[in-house]
């Protein structure tokens, strides 16, 4: 994947906007999150993160509108028109998943505000890492990552817009006008979930790309004992690499805190939604669905498939991050075989022990993210589909 490749040299993309600093490379995502009311905090001077009075006022307004819209949609039954299914179990299950998605997006701004200190720690660790590695001669291409972030955020919003449009295009115009508030809440919540999950994926990529730079540094400065660096310089380099690695571990811990619990709920809800959507598709394939159900089934699959694509990206990015960590561990051990100076060897042994005992990882509340999650989810999906089909036949 393009996003997992090493960033080009700093002189590339001269035609793109000038970007300064770590936060500048993430500014498109930060603006989009604040625009859709997902995260409402302000980054001030020296990258200090704080919640201002204006942020609290905006949060109160956004929360009030969302609560009003959700209650209106539930009391008047607007969610049934949005789901629009002839099968009662599909209608109520998807309606429940829809309301849960809105409620979680409603809670996310408060959750992030409770952990605003961890957000500041995360940005501070990434900034300190970039500054230190730049002094070692490996600057981070912030302009390139600003370009990538802009493309990713724009693509996510365009795709979710098309999914929403495909859902509403077959609805009656009168119904659309009567339920505009509830539809606005659903649409902004879908976009908010998309951006919040995109922020998690970009945070994992931020760790991944920095480990790539560390691997490059070890390969060029330590694995080849060509006499280019003095022993003291190499010893200091290994000490600096140990500190940088520790910062990445701290950054991954902050990511787990800021994103863990909401995404655990999101994953369960999306899995539940995907089971119901696949059940609707199976009814179509078995020839027991009406023409209206056939049209709606593909819309359900579009929604669940789009949200599941973010889970798939998260698992892939996390696996790539762990692969880079393993490469870093291998590079350190290779350096042990290439370096013969005793002080340097001792520092490399300490670094190797540090890498073996701790690694950047993403955890979701009570469990760690692992590629086997996809296999387990597929097995559970097949099980529940068999149960639903048997129930439908009876």
UniProtKB/TrEMBL annotation:
* Segments traversing the membrane: 15-41, 53-69, 89-114, 144-168, 180-207, 264-286, 298-317
- Keyword list, A-Z: Cell membrane, Membrane, Receptor, Transducer, Transmembrane, Transmembrane helix
Question: Signal peptide location in the record?
Answer: none
- Presence of keyword Transmembrane: yes
Q: What is its main location?
A: membrane
Q: What's the protein's topology in the membrane?
A: Multi-pass membrane protein
Q: Name one GO biological process term.
A: signal transduction
Lineage top rank: taxon: Eukaryota
Give Gene Ontology CC terms. plasma membrane
Where, per UniProt, does this protein localize?
Answer: Cell membrane
**What is the role of this chain?**
Gustatory receptor which mediates acceptance or avoidance behavior, depending on its substrates.
Q: Please state what the protein is called.
A: Gustatory receptor
């Amino acid at each position: 994947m393009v996003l997992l490749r090493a960033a080009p040299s700093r002189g590339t993309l001269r035609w793109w906007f000038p970007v300064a600093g770590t936060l500048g490379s993430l500014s498109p995502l930060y603006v989009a999150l604040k625009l859709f009311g997902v995260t409402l905090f302000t980054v001030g001077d020296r990258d200090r993160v704080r919640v201002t009075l204006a942020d609290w006022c905006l949060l109160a307004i956004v929360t009030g509108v969302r609560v009003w819209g959700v209650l209106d949609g539930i009391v008047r039954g607007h969610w049934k028109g949005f789901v629009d299914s002839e099968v009662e179990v599909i209608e109520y299950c998807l309606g429940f998943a829809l309301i849960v998605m809105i409620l979680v997006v409603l809670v996310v701004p408060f959750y992030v505000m409770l952990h605003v200190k961890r957000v500041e720690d995360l940005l501070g660790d990434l900034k300190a890492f970039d500054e230190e590695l730049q002094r070692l001669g490996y600057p981070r291409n912030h302009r390139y990552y600003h370009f990538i972030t802009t493309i990713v955020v724009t693509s996510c919003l365009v795709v979710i817009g098309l999914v929403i449009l495909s859902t509403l295009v077959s609805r009656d115009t009168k119904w659309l006008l009567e339920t505009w508030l509830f539809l606005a809440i659903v649409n902004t919540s879908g976009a908010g979930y998309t951006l919040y999950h995109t922020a998690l994926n970009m945070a994992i990529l931020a760790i991944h790309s920095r480990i790539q730079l560390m691997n490059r540094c070890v390969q060029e400065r330590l694995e080849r004992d060509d006499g280019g660096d003095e022993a003291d310089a190499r010893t200091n380099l290994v000490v600096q690499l140990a500190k940088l690695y520790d910062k990445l571990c701290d950054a991954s811990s902050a990511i787990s805190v800021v994103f863990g619990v909401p995404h655990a709920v999101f994953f369960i809800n999306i899995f539940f939604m995907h089971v119901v959507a696949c059940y609707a598709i199976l009814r179509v394939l078995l020839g027991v669905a009406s023409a209206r159900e056939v049209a709606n089934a593909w819309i359900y699959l579009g929604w669940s498939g789009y949200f599941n694509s973010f889970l798939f990206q998260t698992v892939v990015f996390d696996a790539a991050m762990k692969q880079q960590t393993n490469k870093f561990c291998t590079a350190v051990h290779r350096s042990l075989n290439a370096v013969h100076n005793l002080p340097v060897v001792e520092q490399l042994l300490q670094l190797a022990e540090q890498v073996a005992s701790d690694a950047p990882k993403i955890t979701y509340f009570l469990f760690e993210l692992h590629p086997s999650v996809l296999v387990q989810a597929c097995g559970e999906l097949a099980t529940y589909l068999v149960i639903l089909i048997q129930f439908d036949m009876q």
